[in-house]
Design brief:
It is found in: Mitochondrion inner membrane. The protein is of the alpha/beta class and 609 residues long. 35% of the residues lie in helices and 22% in strands. The strands form nine sheets. Strands 9-8-7-4-3-10-21 form a seven-stranded mixed sheet, covered by helices on one side. A four-stranded parallel sheet has the order 14-13-12-18.
Length: 609
Amino acid sequence: MGFFFFASRAAARFLGEARIIHPGVSTAALLVAAASGGGLVAYADSAGENASSETSQEAPRKKKVVVLGTGWAGTSFLKDLDCSKYEVKVISPRNYFAFTPLLPSVTCGTVEARSIVEPIRKMLEKKRKDVAFYEAECFKIDASKKAVHCRSAVGTNFDGNGDFMVDYDYLVVALGATVNTFNTPGVMENCYFLKEVEDAQKIRRNVIDCFEKASLPNISEEEKRKILHFVIIGGGPTGVEFAAEMHDFLVEDLVKLYPAIQDFVKITIIQSGEHILNMFDQRIATFAEMKFQRDGIEVNTGFRVVKVSDDLITMKSKSLGEVSVPYGMAVWSAGIGTRPVIMDFMQQIGQTNRRVLATNEWLRVHECDNIYAIGDCASITQRKIMDDISTVFKMADKDNSGTLTLKEINDVLEDICIRYPQVELYMKSMHMLDIRDLIKDAIGDSHKESMVVNIEEFKKALSHVDSQVKSIPATAQVAAQQGHYLAECFNKMDQCKEHPEGPLRMTGTGSGRHNFRPFRYKHLGQFAPLGGEQAAAELPGDWVSMGHSTQWLWYSQTSELAHTDAGGIRLDSEVHIWEGFKPNLALPNAASFLVEITLLNNFVVFGCV
């Protein structure tokens, strides 16, 4: 290692004692101090040998994974990621995860805000030191330098600003979306939104302020009607659920506290489409509209809001033209828009004139090798089979005969269905049993026995398959599934490089198989609470349930929140009890069966009678 020569005992004693007291101080520094004390010290060290020994023992550097966002997608990814394999850094302007389906309940006090949030650091506690969290906002993604530029949300640095830069090997963009005002004048200045916990708390305070203001003795009846007119712009799930929560809050609580002004309260929903809940089954939309009509909630469909002032909402319809209505509070829930950082990034990579980032079926951003996008900020571009039909035909034609037999098609059919799921969806929609039925109509009578097709007949057989390509909705359920899928891919990335488990490559960009199977969204159903202990549900298999019994399905997903602290929030809002309810939903009147619920030690027990 080295050798020492001391000209005095004092120098030797000083060095020995100093190394015991200051073990972290370098030997060279101690020798200088010893020499300054009057002793002569000679020292030699095999530095080159030590350096090479330490280098050989160093572990390989972990790849850096930077996650932007702590919403459904980002949190689901972090929850399932094996962080011991990577150096993980999480960047988000909010240091908590919010259970967004319960935001409308927070606006009216049905659920407290603290009950639907979970601190990110607490969620990452099990990861120990493998994850670093920065409470900051990313304002620029630099794909060329593999870095993200951030601005602190809590403080500044010595330069007087809170800007800093974080580099990455893999970037997971899960920034979600912002509100979409469609550039309608006055919306940002005069409307409330319902995207964050802070939004729900603002609405809650303003509702009470409206009632207190309307209770003042110097307010006329006309002014009271205006102040107590609550308008929801947008008839989607968020707007409908907020209207239902608002109605229950009024009839169950506020009328007791403000009995003198209860007759002046009015709730209105403005929807540009022909029906509210237009993403649900038509039966659910009709049921919701009829219930709101009974409850006294006014639903104006076919109206588009063109301007919002501080006391008037101007809307336009084809039949009535422009109509202006006075209001006391307006909540805008008419859609989602793109965040500025995402728009800037899309311009960098050539994805202009798009609403969200375009990714492939493996959630990787187009033209970016190590950047993935999940959640509301991205959409999957499913490749069409007709774009690759020649490559698919050539790959299946192993004997290069220029024709395909039924056996040759069946040999690659599984890979085709994995790579192009629209093939299987089309066959199911047309009630086809197998591939034979698909190609039967495309070949002539002379080929029906041998079932041999050429390239033109193969194209004809698959010409209508791409009609089944559908976009995935921007919901929490989708975001959570994408986060889980991407985490699984990261966990087995090295393994799948050596042993790929994906389908055959059919796009002409390389040979062999893809490392992973592409992402597939599994729809687990969707709920629409309608107030008055009633709800509507659209479940897998074209099942629809409406009424009081369906409300218990919704309670089953949120009951833990009422009996545990924030740590009890469940990240998976899947309908786990679907199989148990399926036989009952087959009854002629699905709402006629009774569901009993028992809460015992935070477990939910269901019984149907």
